[in-house]
Prior knowledge:
Blueprint: E1 4-10, E2 33-42, E3 52-58, H1 66-164, H2 170-184, H3 187-200, H4 204-211, H5 217-227, H6 232-239, H7 243-256
Antiparallel strand pairs: 1-2, 2-3
Helix pairs in contact: 1-2, 1-3, 6-7
Amino acid sequence: MPGLYQYKLDGLDKNWSEWNSGTTVNYTRLPTGTYKFYVRSQDSNGVSTNTTELIINVLPPWYNSKYFALVLVLLGVASSFVLRFYLKRKWKKQKQKLIQIEKNKIVQQQLESEQRIILLENEKLQNEIGHKNSQLASTTMAIISKNEVLNEIKTELEAFKVELGTRLPAKYLKKIYSLIDQNIAGENDWKVFENYFDQAHENFLQRLKLSFPDLTPGDLKLCAYLRMNLSSKEIAQLLNISIRGVEVHRYRLRKRLKLDSNSNLV
């Protein structure tokens, strides 16, 4: 007859187990701690032998160990640093992005302001040019009107000379003619005209003098009048010459500037 066994796990079993012939016993899910396992046997005569004691230490699972807890703490600290670094970097990028957006806004506003200033300056410049052109046109028409009146007076004097004959002294008549001619081709008129003209046409005459230093004052006057698109009749009044004289002067000026027949003088 095989031997019988009886066991008890102190701290878990309150009583001894039933006698049985099994030689193994299983305990599952034992809490962490130290246990005493007792076992005794019974011989064929029913006599119990001495009890054997076995100390059993149940270690905690790896995820409940101090080392694992330490690893978790270290991972938590590392994760905290990584998260902090990530958030700080993300915040820095967002801040830089916002700063760049603000800079772009400022640059855009500056560009818009500069464009508005340029538009205002251009508008002001156009108004000034328009005003100067108006002054130039008024001055030119005044000179033309004055010259027309003086030429009419000169024509009337010619008629008086024929009618009165020797009763009109030649020396006085010659003096009057001289005064009329001086005022028709007056230097003061040209200076006023030249001042307004260069303001309205961006120093056209000054640049022309630099490019063609051999041009005469008469050439410069003709260039200015042509620049204003005046007719040959109007130019003749201003220069106190005939229309034919204007055409001849234009031809000579073209040669002096080395322009062919297809090129515009202005």
